[in-house]
Each structure stands twice: as C-alpha cells, then as structure tokens.
Design brief:
By secondary structure, the protein is mainly alpha-helical. The protein is built from 7 helices and 2 strands. The protein has a two-stranded antiparallel ribbon with strand order 1-2.
Amino acid sequence: MNNLMLGLRTANDYGDQPCNIYEASQDMLDDCAGGCGPGGIGDMLVPDRMWFLSVKPACRVHDWMYTWGVTKEDKKLADDMFLENMEFIIDLKTRWTWLRVLRKNRAYKYYLAVSEGGDKSFFDK
C-alpha cells in the first residue's frame, strides 16, 4: 500500500485527526475504512476482488478520504485517486493484457459508481 496515492494534507486540514492514512491508529482506520462495498449485504454486490485480484487497499484509501473530506473538490480528488489506485494495483499485479482489460473495465465501473452515485455517502456523514 506504500505506493498508493493517499491525498496527503497538512495537519491543519484535519484538526486533531491524522493527516494521512499512515498516521491513523488501526482502530481509527477500521472505523472508517472497510472494503469496497457499502457494508452488510452490499459487500456481496461490490466485492473487494476484481477477477481474483484484491483492490481492497484502494477502497480503504477511498473510504478514508470520504470520511475526512468536506468539499466537492475533496470528493473529486478521492474518486479520481480511487481509480488511479485501482489501476496501479491492476498494472502491478496483472501479467496478461486480456485480464488487465477485464480488471480495468471493472475498476472503471467502480469509479463511475462512486463519482456519479457517491454524493450521499460523502456529504451525509
């Protein structure tokens, strides 16, 4: 997860909260960053794996950014970084081109779901 983009900010941006995901305690991280799905039955509909490859680290960073983000710009940054992080994992872990295409297609669907349908999750905290 060290190479994933984290949307680092200054301490003043978060008040007393950690500036980035690496400064968070495990309890704090577990409270706000689950996996790719919305929780409960939704986790079955939105799995952490794309064609047998886990993209859960990208989902956890995205959840973290949704928890602490405030503005429309924060949401856009979180969503854009979510896609970039999923693509990074896919490129790093996928050998065959045909499988990379399938995985990136799924990643783009995840991205569209949050960028077009994630306002409630982002703004209603």
